[in-house]
Design goal:
The chain is an alpha/beta fold and 477 residues long. It is built from 16 helices and 17 strands. The strands form five sheets. The chain has an eight-stranded parallel barrel with strand order 8-9-10-11-12-15-16-17, surrounded by seven helices. The chain has a three-stranded antiparallel beta sheet with strand order 2-1-3.
């Protein structure tokens, strides 16, 4: 038995229901998989409700009327307030004070055989989302999907030692998610076959969103979806070679405002059999500047109907994620720069999607402890010297907004051992609260610019030719 909550026409209802293994009601109508979501067990509770009128049709929207209910006082007033029949004047009392934190309840996000709950994906970021950072993020949320740094198909096939090191996964990391970059369909196929045959990952995400000039000038990343036929060949090759492994695709709106490709890319990927698509709602020309166009995510959701559509761009707080889902109808969110120096964002996202109060933001003392834990994990993965050097880029993100002087920040960035790190951290004000303005943009933003492309790249969108020297021989972006 599960306590199910259903929202419809700005009203909320609750009931105890029998659910199947994926959280849907075990009845014939597919509508019920869209209006019921198990949010927690109520063993021993006396909450009970039965639908007395099922006025929906198979062609229309679900419309349930609930019988009177008895509520167990141990469930609290919120359960009682939720249990009112259609037309009740108590509809507003079911909402939390901050409407932005109350998600519209949807079926669980599934990527192939994997349920992603909460529907949150850590975006692959070069030099960031190694096994240490992914573990740190996972420590703050029991669910979600955490993708490793971009792996180049050519470097993987050639077994480049650095690339093989980058595909390290924690023993408890399930599913193991790898992002793969490639421009040559044959090389991508070889790489996917290697991943499948050697059990290197459980999920493969194809990168068509990188705007970095060294990538786009070879026709890769965000430049590639313009070549519709070549894009389709690569995606088909990956899906065909993956076998039981789910393949997803991430891309941008297009090269620039004059060359938008996201709707075509979504349809091509859907037809090729991918498990989901994700849109970073910026063009390659924007890079990370300006504002993400969430309307583009909504348009993609309308165009791609048989698989999940994920949204990415400008999620710097949990409320941003809920607003994106409500605004676009997307099935989940992809979080990148918003979690830099803030791995606890995944706890806040989990709370927001569950509809429970957000955890209290950490004090500077708690942030220092998380930073210390990050250093330990990096040292385990890279060794102490290299791990502490890698930590340097994270220092300013962790201390963003806190009253910490530049000299202290610089000193933290120069530590050579854990004793020195502990000494520097002990000098921080342990009682400093989390800054209220620290939730904004962080990480690289830069400015828009011309996208560097191979010569003649825009001449023929159906050209299947792989540019000479297109395949990168190193991973990480």
């Amino acid at each position: 038995m599960d306590f199910a909550v259903w929202a419809w026409e700005d009203q909320a209802f609750a009931a105890v229901v029998e659910t199947d293994e994926i959280g849907g009601l075990p009845v014939g109508s597919p509508h019920l998989h869209h209006v019921a979501l198990a949010v927690g067990p109520v063993d021993g509770a006396t909450v009970d409700a039965q639908p007395v009128t099922d006025a929906r049709s198979h062609d229309g929207s679900p419309h349930w009327q609930w019988a009177d209910v008895a509520t167990d006082p141990t469930l609290g007033p919120s359960a009682s307030q939720l249990n009112h029949p259609v037309g009740s004047s108590h509809q507003d009392s079911a909402r939390q004070e901050d409407d932005e934190c109350v998600p519209t309840l949807r079926p669980p996000l599934r990527i192939g055989p994997y349920q992603v709950d909460p529907p949150v994906v850590l975006a692959p970021m070069a030099g960031i989302t190694n096994v240490a950072f992914r573990r740190l993020c996972r420590d703050h949320s029991a669910g979600g999907l955490y993708v490793c740094e971009m792996i180049t198909s050519r470097a993987l096939v050639e077994r480049h030692p650095g690339t093989l090191k980058m595909i390290s996964f924690d023993a408890a990391e399930q599913p193991r998610s790898m992002q793969l970059y490639g421009v040559d369909p044959a090389t991508v196929r070889q790489a996917v076959e290697m991943i499948r045959d050697e059990d290197l990952a459980d999920h493969i995400d194809l990168n068509f969103g990188c705007p970095v000039p060294k990538v786009t000038r070879r026709g890769g990343g965000a430049a590639l979806p313009y070549k519709r036929a070549l894009f389709g060949e690569i995606v088909h090759a990956a899906v065909d070679a993956a076998g039981h492994l789910p393949v997803t695709v991430k891309f941008r709106i297009g090269i620039d405002d004059e060359h938008c490709t996201f709707l075509d890319a979504g349809r091509i990927a859907e037809q090729a059999g991918v498990a989901a698509v994700a849109l970073h709602a910026r063009t390659a020309a924007q890079r990370y500047s300006g504002t993400a166009d969430w309307d583009a995510i909504a348009a993609l959701k309308q165009a791609v109907t048989s698989i999940p559509v994920l949204g990415n761009g400008d999620i710097f707080a949990a409320t941003d994620a809920i607003r994106m889902v409500e605004h676009t109808g997307c099935d989940g969110v992809v979080v990148g720069r918003g979690c830099l120096g803030r791995p606890w964002l995944f706890a806040e996202l989990a709370a927001a999607f569950t509809g429970i109060p957000a955890p209290t933001p950490p004090t500077l003392k708690q942030v220092a402890a998380i930073l210390r834990r990050h250093a330990e994990l990096l040292a385990e993965h890279l060794g102490t010297d290299k791990g502490l050097r890698d930590l340097r880029k994270h220092i300013s993100w962790y201390l963003h907004g806190f009253p910490v002087g530049g000299d202290v920040r610089r000193a933290l960035g120069m530590v050579a051992g854990f004793a020195e790190l502990d000494d520097r951290l002990s000098r921080l004000d342990p009682d400093a609260p989390f800054p209220p303005d620290a939730d904004g943009p962080r990480g690289r933003q830069g400015s828009p610019g011309r996208v560097v492309l191979p010569e003649g790249w825009l001449d023929d969108p159906m050209d299947r030719t792989v540019p000479p020297g297109a395949e990168l021989t190193h991973s990480g972006g």
